[in-house]
Design goal:
3 domains; about 20% helix
Amino acid sequence: MIGFLTQAQIADAARLKDVVTIEGVRGNPLSGFGLVVGLNGSGDSSLPFTSQAMRRMLSQMGISISAEIKAKNVAGVMVTTTLPPFARQGSQLDVTLSSVGDAKSLQGGTLIMTPLRGADGRIYAVSQGALSIGGFSAGGAGQGAQKNHPTVARIANGAIVEREINFALNREKSLELQLRNPDFTTANRIVRAINGALGQPYAKARDSGAVDVRVPKDYQGRVVDLLTRLETLQVEPDQLAKVVVSERTGTIVMGENVRVSTVALSHGNLSIKISSNPQVSQPNAMAGGQTAVTNQNQMNVTEQDARLIEMQEGVTLNDLVKGLNGVGVTPRDLIAILQTIKTAGALQADLVIQ
């Protein structure tokens, strides 16, 4: 029995690296405006920002043009990527390109050298290369075909890191572990797991979202070794009782800790079916009338008997789903029922409607 319970707890546990992040060890978004050339007439129309960018690019190449440029083979795009932590000069990044004008497709285009800047305005990477959109867009004579999204493209290894972000991890004397899902119980479990592994009270919970860890003397200058040891620790994260409802798609997700108090549910389905049967009215040839099409409409209204289901206090998620399915509700009806139960104060969980 003890072995069975231990295995059940391990099955619910997660690695520490999947529960927390380390302060300072994160990615940084980069973006830049660039030009895609080589399009087959599917680029921007006479847009001012595309024309201005073209004149600036040509000016840097020693070509001076004062008139407005109208080139259907060029499109203005926003180039975005994320600079990962500890990225070094010369590292390559994947970039995403999104059309900002009225280009029809980026298929077959090539991105001209584009600097990518961070939030501080400094250039951290430079991007260039041939695009891949993973689809196509074609049309003519009033017909067309499209696969995927032709105005968004990617370039694998399309950016080269030119500037590093200095962060000396091994010089840190303490670390801050930030919980992905803040929770007091989970924070205390992390503290017990770390102190148990290190044998001393080096970890302390600051609040529900952060745990401070002092670097032991044996790991001074070897913080990477310390993190390697800690990130594999097994921690069982605790979760809030929550029900997430998406009214747009009819999707409902409920956590395992959802409980309901004693409540009775009554549900009745009202179904209205209207059918139309076109009939052709053909008059006699001697009557001098005209042929007409008439519709014979029929409407049937049915209502199922309402059923009352009682749920006892402390009902689990499994019992709640079985009870609601037993009523025969649809996802849309289930959303309304959950909202009503929450309003009645019988749903012991947070109800989040998206």
